[in-house]
Amino acid sequence: MPVSGNPPPSRTAALRGLSGSLAAPPALVAATVFVVTLGVMLAARRWFDPVLFICVAAAWLFATSAFVLVRTHRNAAHANGETNASISQSALNEARMMAIIRSSMEAIITIDDQQRVVIFNPMAERVFGCSAMDAIGAPLARFIPERFRAAHAQHVAQFGVTGVSDRQMGNQRVLAGLRANGEEFPLEASISQIRDGDTRLYTVMLRDITERVKAERAQRQAREELRELSANLQKIREDEKTRIARELHDDLGQQLTALKMDISSVEQALDASAGAAVRDQLQGMRRLIDTTVASVRRIAADLRPVMLDDLGLIPAIEWLANDFTNRYGIDVERQIETGDARFSPAGATALFRIVQEALTNVARHADATLVTLSLQAKEQAFELSIADNGQGAHRTAEPAAKSFGLLGVRERAHMLGGAVDIHTAHGKGFVLTVTIPAETVQMQEIQT
Question: Rounded to whole angstroms, how far apart are CA atoms 263 and 256?
């Protein structure tokens, strides 16, 4: 008997043979068993022995039994192999998933149907200032401000029933989280759910947006400060334009008129001995003064029409439309229906400047022959529209040079709480529509 712990060679060979047989195809094994069994039985009996039939039947029984045994063994081995492979693949997938969760730049928290934490990845530890050891098993409400806990629990319960969530990351309202030290912070969140047997698991992905909210708040504040500065500059410029226009109209205009009267007096005082050249020169001076007076009035009107302050917005717009037609030969159809509205000085100035800028753009860029100007009193608002039949513009086209015309229109409308809408297409004209709340442009009645 061998002294080693290994089995004898013959036994090993037999085991190998059995293993090889079990690994062989079942049909081949059955045929082999049948032939061997039949041969053994026939060797012990004669061919014409009465028990020949019994030998054949016994050989067939042994062959069938071998066939069933081998096939059963092969199926069991195959099933075990598939089960082991499935378990191995499941473990590999789980390991990959956990690696993704741990390395994610988003905070990931998984809770069960009792809203207790079962997964708390490293980014969640960093965001909430709490270790996974302390978080796992704790209720999710621990990380939610108290005033939002009831609503959040209701939302999760509703989500579990409907499978629909309105908290998708990036396009929803900002939520609030609670750090371990009691500090609240803004976050965005998305939620999903899966079933694990009879248990429902909810996975929440969180993003701390504290820095983004701070940047947005600073940007809004800077934008509002710039708008306030722009409004103040607009007011200062309007005041300066008004002062210069008044001085040109009242001071320089009157002086030129007086000079013209003096020249007329000199012409009348000259006797018949004065030469024709002197008289022609005096007439030329008078014509030059007339031209200068007209230029002064035009400049003063361009700075700020006196009638805007003296007569109001509607006469000023009428004068502006007539002056535009006289200068550029472009007809202006007017549709002005404001009822008995009384415009405030700031509102009248803003609307007049918007019309002025829109007509200037038509003259410079539109190549139009007709402009339709409409000012209508709507419900709780005034709607100003300037449309032309010019060449229009491509909405996506880049301007050849920086233009502040439309930007100025938008700023003036914004200062009054209004909105600007533009409709244009190449070859189909340009329509500028400004809607401004009535309360911001009308004269406020003093209550006594």
Answer: 11
In this prediction the pTM is 0.56
Which residues contact residue 352 at a Cβ distance below 8 angstroms, ignoring those fewer than 6 apart? Answer: 305, 308, 313, 316, 317, 320
Q: Considering Cα of 437, then 438, then 440, then 446, what sign does the dihedral take?
A: negative
Give which of 100, 102, 94, 121 is closest to 110, Cα–Cα. 121
In a domain, 296, yes or no: no
Q: Which of 63-72, 153-162, 201-210, 437-446 has the lowest mean pLDDT?
A: 63-72
**Which amino acid is present at 212?**
R
Number of structural domains the chain divides into: 3
Clarify whether residues 115 and 51 are in a common domain.
no
330 in Cβ contact with 338 (< 8 Å): no
Q: Which two tokens stand for residue 249?
A: 């109209």
CATH code of the domain in which 338 resides: 3.30.565.10
Q: Are residues 81 and 126 in the same domain?
A: no
Residue 143: φ, ψ to 5°: -105, 15
Measured over the CA atoms of residue 360, residue 361, residue 367 and residue 372, the dihedral's sign is negative
Name residue 377's amino acid: A
67 and 124 fall within a common domain:
no
Give the pLDDT confidence of 148-159 residue by residue, as tens digits: 888 888 888 777
Q: Which domain holds residue 367?
A: 311-448
CB 384 within 8 A of CB 354: yes
Please state whether beta strands 331-337 and 370-378 pair in parallel, antiparallel, or not at all (unpaired).
parallel
108 and 95 belong to one structural domain: no
- The contacts of residue 287 (CB under 8 Å, 6+ apart) are none
Summary mean pLDDT of the chain: 78
Residues 37 and 161 in one domain: no
